[in-house]
Amino acid sequence: MIIKITIIALLAYLGAIGAPWILGTTGGFYTLGRPLVAAALVGLILGDMQTALEVGMLIQAMYIGIITPGAVMPFDVDYIGYLTPALIILSKTDPNIAPTLAVPVGLIGVTIWNLIWVINVYFAHRADKYAVEGNGSGIRAMNLGAQIVNFAMRFIPAFLILYFGRGFLQELQKMIPPIIIHYLTVVGGVLPALGIGMLLNMIIKDKSYFGIFVIGFMLVKYLNLPIVAIAIMGAVLAVFWFKFQGGVSYNG
Amino acid sequence: MIIKITIIALLAYLGAIGAPWILGTTGGFYTLGRPLVAAALVGLILGDMQTALEVGMLIQAMYIGIITPGAVMPFDVDYIGYLTPALIILSKTDPNIAPTLAVPVGLIGVTIWNLIWVINVYFAHRADKYAVEGNGSGIRAMNLGAQIVNFAMRFIPAFLILYFGRGFLQELQKMIPPIIIHYLTVVGGVLPALGIGMLLNMIIKDKSYFGIFVIGFMLVKYLNLPIVAIAIMGAVLAVFWFKFQGGVSYNG
Amino acid sequence: MIIKITIIALLAYLGAIGAPWILGTTGGFYTLGRPLVAAALVGLILGDMQTALEVGMLIQAMYIGIITPGAVMPFDVDYIGYLTPALIILSKTDPNIAPTLAVPVGLIGVTIWNLIWVINVYFAHRADKYAVEGNGSGIRAMNLGAQIVNFAMRFIPAFLILYFGRGFLQELQKMIPPIIIHYLTVVGGVLPALGIGMLLNMIIKDKSYFGIFVIGFMLVKYLNLPIVAIAIMGAVLAVFWFKFQGGVSYNG
Amino acid sequence: MAEYKKLSPKTLFRSWLTWFFFNGSSQSGERMQGIAFCHSMLPVIDELYKDKEEKIKALKRHLVLFNVEPQIGSVIHGVTAALEEQRANGAEIDDNTINTVKVALMGPLSGIGDTLIPGTLIPILLAIAIGITKTAGVVGPIFYALVYPTFIAITSWYLYKFGYNAGLNGIQEIMQSGKINVLADALSVLGLLVMGALSASYINLSTTIKYTSGEMTIELQNILDKIFPGMLSLLAIIVVWYLLSAKKKSPLWVMGFLFIVTFIGVVLKIF
Amino acid sequence: MAEYKKLSPKTLFRSWLTWFFFNGSSQSGERMQGIAFCHSMLPVIDELYKDKEEKIKALKRHLVLFNVEPQIGSVIHGVTAALEEQRANGAEIDDNTINTVKVALMGPLSGIGDTLIPGTLIPILLAIAIGITKTAGVVGPIFYALVYPTFIAITSWYLYKFGYNAGLNGIQEIMQSGKINVLADALSVLGLLVMGALSASYINLSTTIKYTSGEMTIELQNILDKIFPGMLSLLAIIVVWYLLSAKKKSPLWVMGFLFIVTFIGVVLKIF
Amino acid sequence: MAEYKKLSPKTLFRSWLTWFFFNGSSQSGERMQGIAFCHSMLPVIDELYKDKEEKIKALKRHLVLFNVEPQIGSVIHGVTAALEEQRANGAEIDDNTINTVKVALMGPLSGIGDTLIPGTLIPILLAIAIGITKTAGVVGPIFYALVYPTFIAITSWYLYKFGYNAGLNGIQEIMQSGKINVLADALSVLGLLVMGALSASYINLSTTIKYTSGEMTIELQNILDKIFPGMLSLLAIIVVWYLLSAKKKSPLWVMGFLFIVTFIGVVLKIF
Ligand SMILES: OC[C@H]1O[C@H](O)[C@@H](O)[C@@H](O)[C@@H]1O
Ligand SMILES: OC[C@H]1O[C@H](O)[C@@H](O)[C@@H](O)[C@@H]1O
Ligand SMILES: OC[C@H]1O[C@H](O)[C@@H](O)[C@@H](O)[C@@H]1O
C-alpha cells in the first residue's frame, strides 16, 4: 500500500503546475493534472477503475473550466484529481461525496502553490548573479533547481494526506448522521455549477450567446443525445459560424 | 347552480372586448377573454377542471391567432371561452364536439359586439356636448357609461344561453345519430386549421418562411418534443436571426 | 419464363442511355434506368416485389450519384438495375450479394455502351451526306436509325445473361464456401461508399461542407429520423441558405 | 417671462393609467376610441389649461376619431402630452398639427401592434401555456395570466414615457430605421415554429379509406403516416392558408368551406 | 421591305420536343449529340428557309460536334432558334457566329447541368424515394417516376422558351451573376444532408475483433458504437472520397482497392 | 562586409523545446516566467554572440519579468529570436526595443491564449472525453491524453516558427484583423453547446417539496420536470453566473454561498 500511495503522490507532483518533466505544462498540468486523467491513473494503481472513473467524471465536470491567469489559481485541480478518488477508494466511501471532499483538498493545493510562488523568488535573484557572470548554465540550473522546491512541497503533503486521510475518513464516515450525508449529496449536485459558471463568465460577453448553452442543455434533457454527438454537431455549426460571419465579431 | 351560472356570465362580461375593469384590454379581453384562461376559471367554478382544460386547450388552439383590427371581430373568443366549456360540462357532452359547438357561440358573440359598436355612437354624441361645456367629468362619465350597455348585452345573453342551453344540449345529444357525431368529430379536427391559417396569412409575407412552420410541425411529429422545448429553441434562434440580419428584413 | 425474361430485357433497352422512346433521356435513362425504378418493374414482372425492392434500394443507394459527363460512364446503372434483381430473384440467391453481383453486370453494360459509342460514328457520316443533299428526313432517319444498334446491343446480351445466368448462379452458389459469402457481404456493405464518395467528390469544393454530410449521417444514427423528414428539413435549410447568402458562393 | 409649465410625473402616470384601463370602454363605429382618448387626456388638460376657453378647445380637439392598437399605442398619448405641454407654454401648435400627428402615428402603430401583439406574442405565449397545461394542468393558464399582463403593462407605460420624452421625431426615426421589421421577422420565426408545433398536436385530419383484397387490408392512412405523419392535417392548413391569402376569402367563407368539404368527405367515406 | 418571319409557337414546341426525346439517340465518340441537334433544328429550318441553298447551309451548320447536359441544355436550342430567325430576316449572322455561341454555352451548361441534375437533384429525389420505399414499399419508385420526369419536362421546355426570348445576352448575364453558384451551394446543402442520411442506412462496415480475457469478452465494435455509431462506415466514405479527390484515383481503381482491403480484412479476421 | 549570421533550424528547435518543457518551472511572484524565458534563449544567445560582453547583456536582457500563456506564447520567442538575429547582424535594436516588443505581445497573447486553450479547447476536449468515458470507460481519458498534448505540441512549435518568420509585423497584423475574435466567437459557440450538454448530466438540483391532500400526493419536482426538465439545475447555473459576472463575486465567495444556500434548503426541507 505504501508503494501505491508513493506512486500516486509522485504523479500528483508530475501533474502539478510548473512540473516540467512530462512535456512541460502541456503534458503535465494540462494533461496529467486533469482530474479525469488523474482518476484513471489512480484507478489503475489501486485496482478499482470503475469507482475511479465515476469520481473522475464528477470532479472533472466540476472543475472543467478552471483557468489560472497570471498564475492565480482558484482551486488546485491536480491535487483534487489525485487525492479525491484515491481517498474515496481507499476509505471505501460513497463516491457522491467526492465533490465536497474535493473542496478542502483543492484549497490545500492552492495554499501550497502560493507558498511555492513566493519561495521561487529566491531562484530569480540567484539567476541575476549568474547573468552578470555570463554564466548560462547557472541560469539553466536555477530554472531547473526550482523543481526541488516543487517536488518537496507537492509530494510530501500528498503522501501524508493519503496516508493519514484514509483512516481518518473511514472513522469520520461512521459518525456522520444521514442528514449530513444528504446535505453533502445536495451540495455535490450543485457545486459543478460553479465551474460552469466561471466558464460562462469568461466565454460569454454578449448575453444572447447563453441561448446556445441552453440548447446544449436541452439536447441532452429532451433528446438524450450523447456529448460526442453534440460536440460534432457543434463543430460543424462553429465552422459555418466562422465562415458566414465575414469578420464581424459579436461575442469577442 | 344559478349562482355558478351567474358567476360565469359575469366573467364572460369581464373578459369581453371593451370591458375595462381588470387591467383594461390587457387583463380583460387579452387575458380573461382567452379560452385557455376562461376554461380554467369555468373548471374551477363547476368543479371539473380536467374536462374544462381539455376543452380549453382545444378551442384555444383553434382560435389562437384571432386578431381584431379596427374592431372587426371574426369570432368572439371570449364567449367561446366561457360558454363552450361550461355547456360541455353542464350537459356532460363529449368534449370532442367543442370545436363545433364553439362556432355558433362565437357568432352570437360577434353579433352582440356589432350591436354594441353601433349603440355606443350615442355616448360619443353626448360627449361632444360635454366638451362644448368644458365638462371633463361628463366626458369621463360617457366613457365609463358605455359599460352599462356592454354589461347588459354580455351578461344577460350569456346567462340565458347557459341556463337554457344545458338542458337543450342534453336533449339534442340523445337524438343525434352516430354518423353526425362522427362528422362533428371530423369537423372538430379540421376547424383549428382555420385559426392557424389566419395567423399564417398575417405573419407570412415571404412564402419561404412557411418552411419554419413545417419544421415546428415535424419536431412534434417525429421527435415528440413538447412545445415548451420548441419555444425555447425558437427563442434562441430568433435572437440570432435578429442579430445576424443586419437590419435587412426579408419577411417584413 | 421466356416471356418474362424478354420483357425485362426489353425494359433494359428502354432504360438504357440513348434510348429515346420514353420521354427521351429524362424518362428513359434517368427514370426507367434508375435501379430503384427498374427493380420495382422487375419485382412486378417476376412476382416478388419484396425481394426486388430490397435489392433495388441497396443498389440504388450504391449507384445514387452516378453521372456520365461527356458520355463517360463509370458503371452502367441501367443494366445493374434490371439484371441484378432479376438474377437474384430467379436464382433465389441471398439479396446481400447484390452489390457484388452488380459489379460485373455494370462493367458488361459499360463495355457495351463504349462499343455503341464507336459504332454510332457511322450514322454521323451518312448524315453528312444527306445534309449536302438538303435532305432533312435523311438526317432524322440517321438519328433514329442508331436505335437499331442500341436495341440489338442492349436487348440481346440482357436476354442471354438472364437466360443462362440464373442457372449458372444457382450452381455457383452451392459451391461457394461460407467465408466467401461472408467476404461478399462485407464487400457489399462497403461498396456503396464508392457511389457516395463520387458524389462528395463532385459536390464538395469547400471541405467544410462535409460537416453537413456528417450531420445527415448522425440524424439517422442518433435520432433515427427517416430520410423524408431529413429531406424536408434540408429543403427549408437550403431555402434560407440561398436567401441569406446574398449572392456570395462559398462552395461553388 | 412666464415660468415653463412642466407636466408632473403623477399626471403622466394617471393619464397613462386612464388609457390603459379604459381604452376600449366606449368604442363605437363612429368615433372608435375617441372618447377614451379624450378621457385619458383629462389629467393633462386639467394641469396645463386653467383658462376655460383653452380647456374647451382641448377637450374638443381630443374627442375626434381615434383608433390604435391600445397596448403599444400609448406611445401616441405620450407624444400628444408632450405637444400639449409645448402648446401650453406658447409654442405655435394648433389643433390641426396635433391631430395630424395623432393620425399619422395611428395607422402604422395599429399595423405593427396588431402584428406583434395579438398576431405574434399572444399566440406564442398561449402555445407555450397550452404545452404546459398538457403536462402540468392548471399551471398553464396561470402562467399566461401572470406573464402576459405584467409584461404588457410595463411595456405600455414605458412606451408612454418614451413617447413623452422622445417626441414625434424620435418615434418616427425608430419606425423608419427598419429595425422594427427585423424584429418582426425574428419574432415571426419563433411564432411560426411554435404554431407549427401546436398544429401538429391540435389539427387532426385522417382518411378512413381502406383497400381490402382477400384477407389483407391496406389502410391508406397507415401508408400516409409512414411517408409523412400528419400529411393530411398539414395539407388542410395549406389549403386554408391558400384560400385566405391567395383567394382572399373571408374566415367565415373558409369555415363554411371546411364544413362542406368534411361533410362530403364523411358521406363519401373518405374521412 | 419584306415581312419579318417569326417562328410559330408550334414550330418552337416541335423543335424542343424533338430534342427532348431524341437528344441521346445517336450519340457517338466523334460527333456526340451533333445529329440530334440538327434533327431538333429541322422544324426551325423548314419554316425559315424556303431556299434550297440556305437550307443545305443550315443543315451542315448544325451537324457539327455538339454536346451538353441535354435536359437543361435545351436553353441553347432556344438561343439558336432565335439566332436563326434573325439570320433568316437578314441580320449579319454567319455560320461561325452561330457555332461560336453554341460552343460557348455548351461547356458551362454541361458543368452546371451535370452538377445540378444527375449530381444533386436526382440523388436527392432518389434518396427520398428510397426512404419512402423503406416504409411504404412500391410507393417510393412510383413517387420518383412521377415527380422527376414531370418536373424536368416542364423545366426543359421553359428553358427552351427562355433561351429563345432572352437570347444570348440574357443567358450570359444569369450565368455570370453568381446566382447560379449560390443556388448550387444551397442545393448542395440539401444534397449533402440527404446523402449523409442515406449513407447511415446503406453503408455498413463493422469490425469483428474481440478481446477475450477469462470469462469476459469485449467486442471492439461495441465500444466503437458507443463512441460514435457507424464510425467505420463513415471512415470508409472519407477514405473513398480522399482517394477520389486528393489522390485523383479513378472509380474503378477505388473499387479494386475496396475489394482488396476488405479481402485482407476478412482474412485477418478484422471484418 | 561580414557574413549574415543565420540561426540554424536546430537552434530554433532547441530554443522552443526548452521553453515548451520548462516554461513553468521556476514561476514566481516577482519574475513570473522570467528565468524560463532566459533559459529558452540560451541556444540562441550561444549561437549569435561569441563576444562575452554581448552575451552578458543578452542574458540580463531576457531575465526580466515575463509572463504569457505558455503554449501559444511561443510565438513571442520566435519573434524575439528573429530580433536577436537582426541585432547580432548589426541592426539598430537596443535592449529597450526588444523588451517593449515582448511586453506588448505578452498581454494580448495571455488573454487570447487563456480564453482559447484552458477556457475553450480544454473544456471541449474534456467534455467529449467524459462523454466517451461514460459509455466506453477508460478510452475517454486515453483519448484526451493522446489528442491534447499532440495537438498543442505541434501548434506551439508551428507558432514559434511562425513568429520567427513573420517577425513582429506579421503577428500584429493578424491580431488586429479581427479574425481572431471571430474564431473565438465560433469556438465559443461550440464550447457553450458542449458545456450545456455537460451541465445537463452533471449538475443536479431538485426539490423535495410535496403537497399531500388526502390520499393524493403532488411532488413539486414532478411538475417542474414536466414543464422544463432540469429547471432548477439550470437556475443554479444562472445564479452562479450572475454572481460571478454581474456581482463580481470571487469563486470562493460563490462556493461559500452555495454551501450556505443548500444548507438552508436542506434544513427547510426544500432540497
Ligand atoms: O495568464 C497567462 C499565464 O499566466 C501564468 O503564466 C500561468 O498561470 C499560465 O497558466 C497562464 O496562461
Ligand atoms: O387595429 C387596431 C385596433 O383596432 C381596434 O381599436 C381594436 O380592435 C383593437 O383591438 C385593435 O388593436
Ligand atoms: O456532360 C454533358 C453530357 O454529356 C453527354 O452528352 C451525356 O453523357 C450527358 O449525360 C451529359 O450530361
Helix amount of chain D? over 70%
Ligand names: alpha-D-mannopyranose
With strands numbered from the N-terminus, the spatial order across the biggest sheet of chain D is: 1-2
Average pLDDT of chain D, rounded to a whole number, is 90
Structural class based on helices, strands and sheet pairing of chain D: mainly alpha
Number of helices of chain D: 10
Choose one word for the global shape of chain A: flat
Task: Give an overview of the whole structure.
The complex is a heterohexamer, with 3 copies of chain A (252 residues) and 3 copies of chain D (271 residues). Chain A has helices at residues 2-14, 24-32, 35-46, 49-62, 77-90, 98-119, 121-132, 136-175, 178-190, 192-203, 210-223, 227-244. The model of chain A has no long low-confidence stretch (mean pLDDT 90). The longest helix of chain A is centred in the middle third of the chain and has 40 residues, at 136-175. The N and C termini of chain A lie far apart (51 Å). Chain A folds into 2 domains: 2-203, no CATH class; 205-252, no CATH class. Chain A is built from 12 helices and no strands. Chain D is built from 10 helices and 2 strands; from the N terminus they run αααααααββααα. Chain D folds into 2 domains: 9-114 and 128-177, no CATH class; 206-267, no CATH class. In chain D, strands 1-2 form a two-stranded antiparallel sheet. Chains in contact: A-B, A-C, A-F, B-C, B-D, C-E, D-E, D-F, E-F. At the C-E interface, α2, α3, α4, α6 and α7 of C face α1, α2, α3, α5 and α6 of E. The structure holds alpha-D-mannopyranose (3 copies). One alpha-D-mannopyranose sits between chains F (32-33, 67-69, 110, 113-114) and A (68-71). One alpha-D-mannopyranose (MAN) sits between chains D (32-33, 67-69, 110, 113-114) and B (68-71).
